[in-house]
Amino acid sequence: MIKIGIVGGTGYTGVELLRILATHPQAQLTAITSRKEDGLPVADMYPSLRGRVDVAFSSPEKAKLHECDVVFFATPHGVAMSQAPELVAAGVKVIDLAPDFRLQDVAQFEKWYGMPHTCTDLLKEAVYGLPELNREAIKTARVIGNPGCYPTTMQLGFAPLLKAGIVDAANLIADCKSGVSGAGRKLDVGYLFAEASDSFKAYGVSGHRHLPETVEQLQHLTKDKVGLIFTPHLVPMIRGMHSTLYARLTKEISNADLQALFEDAYKDEPFVDVMPFGAHPETRSTRGSNMLRIALHRPADCNMLVVLVVQDNLVKGSSGQAVQCMNLMFGLDESTGLMHVPVMP
Amino acid sequence: MIKIGIVGGTGYTGVELLRILATHPQAQLTAITSRKEDGLPVADMYPSLRGRVDVAFSSPEKAKLHECDVVFFATPHGVAMSQAPELVAAGVKVIDLAPDFRLQDVAQFEKWYGMPHTCTDLLKEAVYGLPELNREAIKTARVIGNPGCYPTTMQLGFAPLLKAGIVDAANLIADCKSGVSGAGRKLDVGYLFAEASDSFKAYGVSGHRHLPETVEQLQHLTKDKVGLIFTPHLVPMIRGMHSTLYARLTKEISNADLQALFEDAYKDEPFVDVMPFGAHPETRSTRGSNMLRIALHRPADCNMLVVLVVQDNLVKGSSGQAVQCMNLMFGLDESTGLMHVPVMP
Amino acid sequence: MIKIGIVGGTGYTGVELLRILATHPQAQLTAITSRKEDGLPVADMYPSLRGRVDVAFSSPEKAKLHECDVVFFATPHGVAMSQAPELVAAGVKVIDLAPDFRLQDVAQFEKWYGMPHTCTDLLKEAVYGLPELNREAIKTARVIGNPGCYPTTMQLGFAPLLKAGIVDAANLIADCKSGVSGAGRKLDVGYLFAEASDSFKAYGVSGHRHLPETVEQLQHLTKDKVGLIFTPHLVPMIRGMHSTLYARLTKEISNADLQALFEDAYKDEPFVDVMPFGAHPETRSTRGSNMLRIALHRPADCNMLVVLVVQDNLVKGSSGQAVQCMNLMFGLDESTGLMHVPVMP
Amino acid sequence: MIKIGIVGGTGYTGVELLRILATHPQAQLTAITSRKEDGLPVADMYPSLRGRVDVAFSSPEKAKLHECDVVFFATPHGVAMSQAPELVAAGVKVIDLAPDFRLQDVAQFEKWYGMPHTCTDLLKEAVYGLPELNREAIKTARVIGNPGCYPTTMQLGFAPLLKAGIVDAANLIADCKSGVSGAGRKLDVGYLFAEASDSFKAYGVSGHRHLPETVEQLQHLTKDKVGLIFTPHLVPMIRGMHSTLYARLTKEISNADLQALFEDAYKDEPFVDVMPFGAHPETRSTRGSNMLRIALHRPADCNMLVVLVVQDNLVKGSSGQAVQCMNLMFGLDESTGLMHVPVMP
């Protein structure tokens, strides 16, 4: 059994980790920290876990995280980098669901997150936790920067095209839509039901924190200079993410070959489903599961390829992906504990 | 492995059976029938099942249901009673998610469903599939009438009170609220998103088909004459059911004793959670799971007890309960394949 | 033109007042106060008002409310009673959308709102602003306690029955359901989209602030002692309220006579619509309008009457009713500026 | 008073016309046809209109449409072109909310709508009813092809850029999102609440009927060849449309000048609101109103302009725009009867 600690389990990525780990056959939840909720049984905050998760929140001091095999950080940025060095020194693996270990470009981190990076040594060895593109490095990593939700969809949607060198890398567009849980359990007027329901809007169009991480990773896939316009939107739904990706083809290629390119790229992936050419994936087809689905479109008489990508932002876009990384790091089958069938309708 | 057939798997109870059975360790889905969709892979209709359910719909003629160990009917009323005799004769157990085998009072069946009952012999031996009240009979049954969604909440909420003889059985009120999936995948203008979203209404206030079944079952629990006002409402949510039950106490009893009564009644039940006195269960705390939660309230200075009951109408209210019955019928642990943690948020 | 001031216009009842007053032919919005948002154009907070409302929020000091003809308080409890005396002394009429002037029983106010009532003199002359039951008194009032949203539905639903003396007044039940805007624009985790969407729950079952106000008013309609069980629920919709009322008939009376009783009671009311016997009103049929709709049901063979009442909680349940009162107080036609057709779908 | 007929008023554009016309000071609804609902009072189908619209549906034979001043067609394609000639010959003006008179290119009409165009004579004189681009022609038109909902947003968002000749017209992208009411009141499984709620998807990515109409109109604004990728998506909300438009700038131009270009283009328009540069308009800020809002964004260091456009698809995107055209055709102030303040929240 893997002894597991969670730092900051009161938010949505935290409770989603708990949901997944509760039925993971190799997981033994040892500690979950919350200074504010010290002593409160987790199931009192989240009645969905009544009878399934017995632990209580504990203050960081009591939590004995250094006795864990792995610690997940489901915290705001800045927390993981302050605690990771001590844990790693104690032999504990660290998986950060926040951005502290995602961006190798420290200047970019500091620009977008408005704080100095205090743990650049560990950052250098940290591995970006996207198994489909980074599997081998994850297996031996001590520190994982778990990808953001939007970046997961953009990378898995653009990767085969950039690797094949068949699109204009400098002019990519990602028009992305997220359910409201992507904003976390944060108290902000804009996320109130009466504000966010029955409405739709873009946000952060002039700049969003998930952009630099995505560009940095995409740049590893091509020698061409990557340029990306990323437009996030808020959808009145709880979970789910839909990215509509636009890439201009620079080579003649048939639709069948495009389809084959994607099917080949992901044929052994347990959590990437390439749907038939021209399909319209729905976010709900991934609800509660670690599956990400992709479909290709080529509007008539045109060299523009449209790639549709859907996932559950809290699973493949966050906590599920983190457990997928954990499985790899501990030599388990990658899909252990992650075979939830999507809840539909 | 239990060889399983499903008749009429294109609706919500059908796809929910498929979701549950896909990870049930003892279930082997052998056939799923749909005359209209013969040959269509199930996953083409329900992309959420891509990679998880391999079977295709087949016409009833090809389905070889008589070779199954058990056949679930996820069909409109009238279908199960026409096919059950032949299956039972072939040694196949039958679990009907529709009402054909719920009501022992044939006149009531014919009044509410507008058709003659053509299988009264089997009806006589059929067992009402509510494990918490009927466990032993289910274990040896050949035919199960799986309870309706509303009746499950009303029975489990009222049962301890009626058994204890401490409420006015003649004047029970159940004000019940259901998510829209309760109406099935039926094409009806009133269930369109643009009609049912952002609105709330009652329906069937003058009379609803789930009333006679509930009264018949409740009557088994008390010698007093049961009278029940049942008011169903439609909630703009997909899954979930919330029943607010009103019962007038006829004996002096403390809140602590009431709470103890319920906790005792359900203390060994894997799928009934009695929450602390005064709690307000949310339907989402059961989403995607077979759990039903109950909480008691006693508005100040008053002999009226208010019982709040929540469940996922498609799981404990339908397909999950059917699998719970199957487990009992085949000697498995009752919770086999049913330990999904609710998806929250 | 009526010169109008609004205190505390940043919440939902405030912005709804602004929406209604923007097209009211006799209304001239003079000032709207918010200490926190001093100087901010109202339309910057509420873009729906761009081009339609030109005023900016101003601090109370600058607002010159004493020069208004009427001031609406769209504030938390406690504010109106602190400012009303000075305004009334200056000849300004006061309409409080909060509870300060609703409850004549000061002890009840203090019990439920946890603060002393500091303005009991004005309270004595204050008029409860439900035009259908209190029209003449409203016309000459200086201070109006505008009814709560739930109480409006309960009173208009029970009133004809209590006046006629045909129901058991001691055992009324109101099972009520409200859209989330009823909670205001308050930052509370439970009202976040990801918490309140796709779920349903009861709240305040053991006691809710709208109970004493309702009982006090209902008691004026009958010599029998009124007893009321009131169970509020939260519906995943923005606007809308549905109250399901249960009253036991104590006299023999036909359904036709019951229907006539209600039709007669409300035949001259511009904002009460008695639907045909057995109808199921939807909340959306009142969305954005000041209309309240009622329908009666009599479940078979039973002396229980079920009364269904729907309204838009922000209009007839709050700001629309306040404007209706204003119209009466200033001698205008009662429906002036209130003839919005419900927005449907 | 303008005598008005409506053909096919049982759908959402029909009921929205009724809502608007019910408070239009110059409108007199004379007839509304529905063969199927002949004799049914409109308010029986749409209780939101109880007390506000007195007419009943009548069969086309009885409707005496030729005595009207104007007839709106809120019908599927093919109906208006079959009835318009007779009406126009009788001196009746025709406003078609369907596509029969939108596309001058008959081959395109026949390709996308799969039927021959039987009324090409009238089509030639028909005017495309987008007042902001076509005002003078509308004033004297006998037949109006009222624009589709998506096309309205795309045209008003791209028009200033194309007229100014500062973008790459051949490579426009429109990523558009619509509420479910855009699909009409059609019985289709995909629009059921339990299917469309809490999910998001694209549809018609390979080709959508609103594309040719948009390209045809945009082409009038520029000598460059227009190329447009149009990707529609379905949002789980009732009303509202959000178009995210991408255009590559071909000239050096400052953000201030871009903003000025749009503000100048629409400075006299009653129903186009150019928001501050960098704003994020929400669809709900237009709910129930005829207002369309636009905001510009320029992601850092980039020649890509992002234009955000929102509207209520049933008002400015359909019925409101049709009434706006009617006002122009009958010499009324353009905003007569259209000054609804958006319903928010």
Automatic annotation (TrEMBL), chains A, B, C, D:
Keyword Amino-acid biosynthesis carried by entry: yes
Keywords, comma-separated and alphabetical: Amino-acid biosynthesis, Arginine biosynthesis, Cytoplasm, NADP, Oxidoreductase
Claim: Zinc is one of the keywords in the record: no
Catalytic site: C149
Pathway annotation from the record: Amino-acid biosynthesis; L-arginine biosynthesis; N(2)-acetyl-L-ornithine from L-glutamate: step 3/4
UniProt domain Semialdehyde dehydrogenase NAD-binding: residue ranges: 3-141
InterPro entries cross-referenced by the UniProt entry: AGPR, AGPR_AS, AGPR_dimerisation_dom, AGPR_type-1, NAD(P)-bd_dom_sf, Semialdehyde_DH_NAD-bd
Subcellular location(s) per record: Cytoplasm
Pfam families: Semialdhyde_dh, Semialdhyde_dhC_1
GO BP, sorted A to Z: L-arginine biosynthetic process
Enzymatic reactions: N-acetyl-L-glutamate 5-semialdehyde + phosphate + NADP(+) = N-acetyl-L-glutamyl 5-phosphate + NADPH + H(+)
PROSITE patterns in the cross-refs: ARGC
Chief location: cytoplasm
EC number: 1.2.1.38
One GO MF term: NADP+ binding
Gene Ontology cellular component list: cytoplasm
PANTHER family: N-ACETYL-GAMMA-GLUTAMYL-PHOSPHATE REDUCTASE, CHLOROPLASTIC-RELATED, N-ACETYL-GAMMA-GLUTAMYL-PHOSPHATE REDUCTASE, CHLOROPLASTIC-RELATED-RELATED
Family stated for the protein in its record: Belongs to the NAGSA dehydrogenase family. Type 1 subfamily.
Record function comment: Catalyzes the NADPH-dependent reduction of N-acetyl-5-glutamyl phosphate to yield N-acetyl-L-glutamate 5-semialdehyde.
Protein name: N-acetyl-gamma-glutamyl-phosphate reductase
Species this protein is from: Undibacterium parvum
Gene: argC
